[in-house]
Amino acid sequence: MNGAIWIAVVAAVSFLIYLFIRNKVTFFSCFGYGLLLTEIVLIFISRKQPLDWNCQYFIILLLLICLGGRGCKYLNPETRMLYYTGMVISLLSTVSVAFLTNLEFLSIMGYLILGALVSFVSLGQMAVCNRRSNEGVGFIVAILALFIFHRAMIVCGYANEAGIKLTIDLENVIRAGPAKGIVTSLQKCNEVKGTLSDWQRFVNEDSILVVVPWMSDPIVYVDQNTKVSTFSTINTPTYNESLLYYWDMYPEKIPTIIAVEGWNGEISVDKNTWIMRWVEDTYTVHEDGEFWRFYRKE
């Protein structure tokens, strides 16, 4: 809804500007550069305000597809086939993600990217046929600049855990382990460094491991050459009785060590959860690292 309101307001203001200076600017050029300007402003507003602008720009993909549909009739048969192929693949991918995942609506819209790209072909041809090539080029350049600026400025990943939203606020780079080279917060760099140290001290290569944080980062499973004990390593695992059924079916997967996220002996996982009650009832011995507690059987 926020994205739709953003586009509607920019379109209305762009039309008013176009009415006053129609001899100097076209509506679509004004609209495109209006979206780019407001995107820049909103990104920097989100830096200090509780405004989630990470995925709002995906609404533009739907806008491009709608606009591109108007120019389909101007395409020759070969180019029209390219347009239809890209659009069908994009739409089917989006529908598949909608049915098979629990992603939010805006994240699902990101899979319209191929449809938006082939829409540029349609928009460009429509502008040429209507003798408005400058208008089409201006709009396309503005939208491409918007996407490039957004992806260059917005942080999606490790640094979000520390409240960092923009790349200009990133603090350090991970220098060891599988995540080496990722730019993030100083806090996350220290966590990765401490996790590597904990794994080297407490986890053997022949261990059968299950990791129990509140939100799992599956990359920790490759910090050592261990066997994975769970049936899933996605970042939102389900820790319930289904694990017991899984281990009954595959006894070779029963964990020999369980790593629970914490800080110098203070675990961060709720002790009233099923997994923590089961761990503390089953694994009686534990050792504390810097960022993890490691449970073992006697």
Model description:
The chain is α/β, with parallel strands linked by helices and 298 residues long. The protein contains 10 helices and 8 strands. Strands 3, 4, 5, 6, 7 and 8 form a 6-stranded mixed sheet that branches. The protein has a two-stranded antiparallel ribbon with strand order 1-2. β5 (257-263) and β6 (266-267) form a beta hairpin.
Helical residue percent? 40-55%
Following the backbone from N to C, one meets helices and strands in this order, namely: HHHHHHHEEHEEHEEHEE
Task: Return Rg in Å.
Answer: 25 Å
Assess the beta-strand content as a share of residues.
5-15%
Residue stretches low in confidence (pLDDT < 50, at least 5 long) are none
Mean pLDDT: 84
Number of strands: 8
Q: How is the main sheet built?
A: 6 strands, mixed
Oligomeric state as shown: single chain
End-to-end distance: 55 Å
The rough form would be described as elongated
**Class from secondary-structure proportions:** alpha/beta
Treating each run of at least 4 consecutive H or I residues as one helix, how many helices?
A: 10
